[in-house]
Amino acid sequence: MSDIIGLAASAAGGGVFGLVGTVIGRVAGLIERRQDNTQERARWAHDAAMQQARMREITVATEAQIKLADAAGAWRGSAASMEAEAAIGESYKCVNAVRALTRPLLTLLLWVITGLVYLGASAEARVGIVETATFAATAAALWWFGDRGQKAR
Question: Is the pTM of this model over 0.85?
């Protein structure tokens, strides 16, 4: 009988240890899965951060290309304007005189308009309007007279 009790105790003890081993294995698997999920979330966050950094880099590069294209277009426009001016050539003296006086008269008119706007505008509106008019008058004066030196013959 004692052999049967010892056999039953061994079977029960083995079953309990087997069950405990299974529970420990399942708990270890659950912990391992949680760690994998945590690691996967961290990888996803890292991938998202890298994608955002790539998008910022592309945005900066695109903005730089747009600025470069704008500057190149402005220089092409300036070159075309200078070529058009050079292509006009000489004409009658009165036509040349009118052409020569057009820029100075328009510049003087721009500065007179700027002064009148400044005197007639209210204090609040004066800043923006006068800044815009001064920008236009200065740009026109520098554009028109910036390359008015003696031409080589």
Answer: no
